[in-house]
Design brief:
InterPro entries: CTDL_fold (IPR016187), Sulfatase_Mod_Factor_Kinase (IPR051043), SUMF_dom (IPR005532), SUMF_sf (IPR042095). By secondary structure, this protein is of the alpha+beta class. It has 8 helices and 10 strands. A 4-stranded antiparallel sheet has the order 1-4-10-5. Strands 8-7-6-9 form a 4-stranded mixed sheet. A two-stranded antiparallel ribbon has the order 2-3.
């Protein structure tokens, strides 16, 4: 005679074990899917690296050197030291053809066990003191970091990052590939934007500024702002430079590795300059954070030439969990290796 209690207990254990196995399989399946996505990201990151043969160039506002077009006058209205034209010699390196996207950055964070860092509910008292609107931020950051009907292909737009987060992302790619990934130096960025140091004014397909064709027009930016709350575009939306680089200067500013010093060009070393050895400049705005160099994207856009430089301060207390500051700055990674990766 079969013991009914034993039968019920046995069935219950079997069901429980089945549930545990199903749960385990789900976890394994999710982990496998994540690892597959990460592997795809690593493969893409290497394939998207454009090899740039090193050489010499005159860095800075080259107007006085381009006398046929300028009569020896400077091109740029701003300064920040760019009128100190100086000779630079670079080793070969590779630079990503695309800026870091929200999709790829959030995937990296997922691989590290970190959540969405954008301050939907974490607007600090300092943010409010600096005049940032928390209600505005709640809606905007949600759109910026998700792919929603109101924000089509938003995940393929440049990720807005603190400098530290951008550098961490590039270094993580280095850990995954065994290659020396980092943010590019300012000299590497300019050399690449100028098609290996030529007298190129705009980092576009033909060196010209043609709104609506090779750079976004005012109307296109307005349309994007209505769709996604911000006027950046999916990476690669406009033609590449002759070297095969996209969005150099016109799809938000980009961090580079260098500390900002308005006088650095006057004493920059010729061979592979890395910027100041330590932080040297702060303007005190919004705190006392020191500044890194950023390249590209200011207004009016037709003044943003290949040699244009400005600065963005770092927040005093960076944590990878939540970004408490507003950064309309993105980045692209470089690989300091003197041979092509592919």
């Amino acid at each position: 005679m079969i013991n009914k209690k034993g039968l019920i207990l046995g069935c219950s254990l079997g069901l429980l074990m089945g549930c545990d196995n199903q749960s385990d399989n789900t976890v394994i399946s999710q982990d496998t899917a994540l690892q597959s996505e990460i592997a795809g990201l690593i493969t893409r990151s290497k394939a998207d690296m454009v090899f740039i043969e090193g050489g010499e160039f005159m860095m800075g506002d080259f107007g006085p050197l381009d006398k046929e077009k300028t009569g020896g006058l400077y091109y740029g209205i701003g300064d920040y030291g760019v009128r100190t034209i100086h000779k630079v010699s670079l080793k070969s390196y590779s630079l990503s053809r695309y800026q870091i996207t929200f999709h790829d950055y959030l995937l990296y964070r997922k691989s590290k066990g970190l959540g969405n860092p954008y301050p939907i509910e974490h607007i600090t008292a300092q943010n409010r003191q600096d005049g940032f609107n928390s209600k505005f931020e709640n809606k905007k950051w949600l759109k910026l970091s998700t792919n929603t009907p109101e924000s089509p292909r938003q995940s393929e737009t440049p990720a807005f990052l603190p400098w530290e987060a951008a550098q961490e992302y590039c270094q993580w790619l280095g850990e995954q590939t065994g290659l020396p990934y980092s943010l590019p130096t300012e000299a590497q960025w300019e050399y690449a934007a100028r098609n290996r140091g030529q007298f190129v004014l705009y980092p576009t397909d033909n060196g010209q500024f043609e709104p609506g064709r090779n750079v976004p027009s005012y109307e296109q930016r307005q349309q994007r702002r209505h769709l996604g709350g911000i006027d950046s575009f999916p990476v690669g939306s406009f033609p590449a430079t002759p070297l095969g680089l996209y969005d150099m200067g016109f799809n938000k500013s980009e961090w580079v590795n260098d500390w900002f010093d308005p006088d650095y060009y006057s004493h920059s070393p010729e061979a592979d300059p890395q910027g100041p050895a330590e932080a040297v400049f702060t303007d005190g705005y919004g705190g006392t954070g020191f500044s890194k160099v950023v390249r590209g994207y200011e207004y009016p856009m037709d003044l943003i030439m290949t040699f244009f430089r400005t600065k963005q301060k770092l927040w005093l207390e960076y944590t990878p969990e939540v970004f408490d500051g507003l950064y309309y700055v993105t980045a692209r990674c470089a690989v300091n290796h003197d041979k092509p990766l592919n």
